[in-house]
Amino acid sequence: MSTTFWSIWRRLYGEGKFKKFLSRTIQTIIAVVILTMQITTNYNWLQIVIAFGISVWVIIQYWSRAIGEIIDAGLNHNQDAKSYDRWFRVPLDWIYDKLGKEKYVGFYDFWYSLIRYAIGAIPLLCYSWLVLLLMPFQYFIYLGCHKFFMNHPKLYNSNVLKYITLNEPKNVAEVIHGALFGLIVGIM
Q1: Highest-confidence segment of 17-31, 49-63, 70-84, 85-99
Q2: What is residue 51's predicted lDDT score, i.e. its pLDDT?
Q3: pLDDT digit string (tens) for 114-125?
Q4: Which pLDDT does position 170 carry in this prediction?
Q5: Mind listing the pLDDT tens digit for each residue in 85-126?
Q6: SS (H, E, C) the chain
Q7: 22: left (phi > 0), else alpha (psi -120 to 50), else beta?
Q8: Cα 31 to chain center, whole Å?
Q9: Burial class (CB within 10 angstroms; exposed 0-12, middle 13-18, buried 19+) of 36
Q10: 74 near 143, Cβ under 8 Å?
């Protein structure tokens, strides 16, 4: 149940067209309530308040932040600092400068997305170490979906996939990423 909910919710949350039917605010509230219910193990008021606070953090920091350029998993070599418009770009750029490495290409996206998702997922560590799997694997989900679509370009034009809005690698990656999140939350 958790895996199904989060995979569908993530796809709908990532789809801009769906906002016409249900605002992003309502979608966020639904996700916060569901996550709070899933991670609350003891229904005393303090446990619920803590779970609610963690849920708000996770939904806003883990899911609500745009992923932007990192969804290409390092395949686009025409990106610059504007493509990575988050504060954690600054320390990452500093490290890359110290190492003499080229920024905004290749594994820069891995480190950027690792930091971006880790910040959102860290509070869930209170419930299970399995949350550590969320941090690096989302990068490989996006990369795998991009490479799969590159190897099978006919998928972009599939009428069936267009109908269910899964005719882009980002969209498929959202479903898989949501399912992984739901699986981990479901077994916490």
Answers
A1: 49-63
A2: 95
A3: 888 888 899 999
A4: 84
A5: 777 788 888 999 999 998 877 788 888 888 888 888 999 999
A6: CHHHHHHHHHHHHHCHHHHHCCCHHHHHHHHHHHHHHHHCCCCCHHHHHHHHHHHHHHHHHHHCCCCHHHHHCCCCCCCCHHHCCCCCHHHHHHHHHHHCCCCCCCCHHHHHHHHHHHHHHHHHHHCCHHHHHHHHHHHHHHHHHHHHHHHCHHHHHCHHHHHCCCCCHHHHHHHHHHHHHHHHHHHC
A7: beta
A8: 14
A9: buried
A10: yes
- Give the closest residue to 67 by CA, choosing from 13, 21, 28, 18: 13
**Which structure tokens are listed for 43?**
């229904």
Is this model's pTM higher than 0.90 or not?
no
Count of alpha carbons within 13 angstroms of residue 72, beta-carbon side: 14
Scanning the structure block, which residue is given the tokens 């016409």?
Answer: 20
- Dist CA 41 CA 114 (whole Å): 28
Cβ atoms < 10 Å from Cβ of 164: 11
Read off the amino acid at residue 117: Y
CA distances from 71 to 39, 55, 68, 75 (A): 28, 24, 6, 9
